[in-house]
Amino acid sequence: MSAFIQGYTLGLAYVMPIGTQNIFVINTALTQRRSRIWLTTFCVFFCDIVCALACFYGVGGIMQSSRWLQLAVLGAGSLVVMWIGFSIFRDKSTLEGDEGKSELSAAKVFTTACFVTWANPQAWIDGSMMLGAFRTSLNGADGARFIIAVCLASLSWWVVMPTVVSLLQSRINNKVFRAINIICGAIIMAYGAKLLVSFVRLAAVMFG
């Protein structure tokens, strides 16, 4: 199998599972006007490829070697992720036209994209182990093809997924949308709680 195909398939497998990134983009695709959807897509894609490139070149190893850095990111990240989840969980906005929707500011879109992508140190460590392992097994040219394909897979997903969700918006009524918010918010809060548990465990090891 070519390095490009390996990179593309691995990139899709890396980005497609439901997580905070996907839920943030889905929620945006259902509630925001098209320009904000594309801004969100670009911001998440940008954060995603920065994470992938950093993992490919081993920055996760730095985080893995520094317990203080892990502790700081886990602590701050858990609180931010839980707040994002709670905000979605309690959101009672409707789908009745763009004028009824509160528009996310560009700054909030970018900062939220950064948090949902970068707030979990375990993602950096796991990503570094996965992508870094491929880097060690590929030569220079194949390595470049591999990571380019990973980035293209990310781009493909973040363009196609919100587009499909936005097109299906007309089939989703307010009751369904509220249920989606409750489920998605609960999932994100659970992610945040999991990070908080990891923070407590790491703190116990460091200070116990």
Question: Would you kindly provide a written description of the structure presented here, covering whatever features stand out?
Answer:
The mean pLDDT is 82. The protein is built from nine helices and no strands. The chain has helices spanning 3-15, 20-31, 34-56, 59-65, 67-90, 106-118, 121-137, 140-167, 174-207. It has one domain. It is an all-alpha fold. It is flat. α2 runs parallel beside α8 (140-167) and α4 (59-65) crosses α7. 82% of the residues lie in helices and 0% in strands. It is a multi-pass membrane protein. This is Amino acid transporter. It is found in: Cell membrane.
Q: What distinguishing features does this structure have?
A:
single chain, 208 residues, mainly alpha, transmembrane, Amino acid transporter, amino acid transmembrane transporter activity
